[in-house]
Amino acid sequence: MKFALSALSIAMTTVTLMSASIVTHANTDTHVNPTAAPSHASSQNEIQTITQIVEAEDSAAHIQATDDIRITHSAMSHDHKRTTKPLSTLIDPITHKTVDNSYALDVSSFLSLEQAQDILLQVSPKIAANDAAIAASEYQTDALKTLDNPLVFARVSASAYHLDEDIDLSSLRSGIVNEINNSVDGIVPPPVPDLPNFGELVGERLPDSYDFKRSGETTSAGLGVAWPIYTAGRTAALTGASRARTQETLADSILDKNALYNTLIERYFKAQLAIIAAYLRDDAYDTLKQTDHMAERLYEEGFISHVDRLEAQSALADAKSEAVKANNDARLAMIALQRLLRTDYRIKPTTPLFVSSRPLPDVSYFQDLALNNHPGLQKVAAKRAQAQQLHALSDTGYKPTIMLYGYGQVEKDPSWVAGVSASWKLWGGLDKTASLASSSAQIRQADLSEIEVSDNLLLLVEKNWHDVNNAQARYQALQSNVDLAAEVLRLRRLGLQEGVNTTIEVVQAQTQALKARTEQAQAAHDYVQALAALMQSCGTPLAFNAYLNAADIQLPTLYTQQ
């Protein structure tokens, strides 16, 4: 099972699943001793592969073909390349979740470190999630860029109405009658005989109530525009703050990616070391079986005592137990690498442990790299940029916003309105003085954080630089121990055959030889891990590959590239 991240453009954020099949073969025709003297890079192609140590569950020399389902998280990649692979929907075999937009990724079970690094970028859910966060932040910035653009809108309405109301007119009728009568009395001088009652005449024509009924339909349409022509820099400040947040998200993504690179190196070469340790334990067990057989013959012929015979048997049992434990440790180390690369089969590391006899450049070189490349400083710079943009936004508190606007109806005889408006904040809302003080404090915080982070980085780089040199010196010093232990073991075994040495002396010599070879392999592992830590602290984790390729000492490996 593999999780992979496809290289889509910034605008695409998807999660993908894939399936494929893979057949791998291991060559067991030639049995190579991985504990032989370390070879130079030129002789590395001569090393054959064996699998019986770490693939103890496989009874055959060949690994059968297995169905390989892999999941790919598609998201924005930093080089903005777009995948052309067909996408589909499949099921994640680990979480059993449905994942859309999936594609197949064919991965060999034999991987060099550089191949594993490339696959890690594609299969890591963490990297995919970070790329999605970067894409989301960039989209937010793009959305803010149009705040100052004209807003054009259309309005269309259609309505139907119906009115039915019984209106009481009695009070209105009484008022009119009284008003008329009073007016007539004031105009006609008395006495005037036989004049009609004008109020009653008018009142008879007015009803006491009126049933009002109306119904119909109406439609209207119009176009409007609103254009903020001056916002006192608010839009630029908001866009700048969003862009700075994107830079912070990008710096966090690089930090996570560098940490994943370091984790990969740790697990990859830990698996290599565990495989070598398993081989050494198996080799020691085979040797002690020969010693035990020789002790048995000598005991039968009366050359050694019963105690010596028992010591040989006890040493053989211990060696068998240690060999089983070493093989289990190797499997566990390979499973850890398998989990990181999200496969459902074992990954066989083909890049050997290595040590360079050449001295490292001066520590100041790596410190300059750290100050120029470490994403931690980039994150601090992004924080400062955000604070600066917030300061600029706070400074616009009492500045006006000027807007052009207009609206016109789309009718036979249209009406329209257009104008310009300006608005100021006079009182209320956020306190401008407090906002400016807050953003100024954030800028100062970022400046001081940059000093602290730089100091810590310089110290970390120097510590890792010394760790690399110490591991290099220890590896070179242990070579004499390996040579001495091998020669002592050879002499003790000859002495046992001649009756000069006892079985316990042979066992002790075997133990010392195993210890010397294991310590030297551990020193090479320490060198690799210290170098990886140094490259990560410089912010250039992939520079590790250049030192790997230039190394003049390489330990043998059980697996080679197929």
UniProtKB/TrEMBL annotation:
GO annotation, cellular component aspect: cell outer membrane; efflux pump complex
Locations listed in the record: Cell outer membrane
Signal peptide: 1-26
Annotated Pfam families: OEP
Alphabetized GO MF terms: efflux transmembrane transporter activity; porin activity
Keyword Transport found: yes
InterPro entries per record: OMP_efflux, TolC-like
Superkingdom field: Bacteria
UniProt KW keywords: Cell outer membrane, Membrane, Signal, Transmembrane, Transmembrane beta strand, Transport
Family, per entry: Belongs to the outer membrane factor (OMF) (TC 1.B.17) family.
PANTHER family in UniProt: ABC-TYPE EFFLUX SYSTEM SECRETIN COMPONENT, OUTER MEMBRANE PROTEIN TOLC
Protein name: TolC family protein
Upper taxonomic lineage: Bacteria, Pseudomonadati, Pseudomonadota, Gammaproteobacteria, Moraxellales
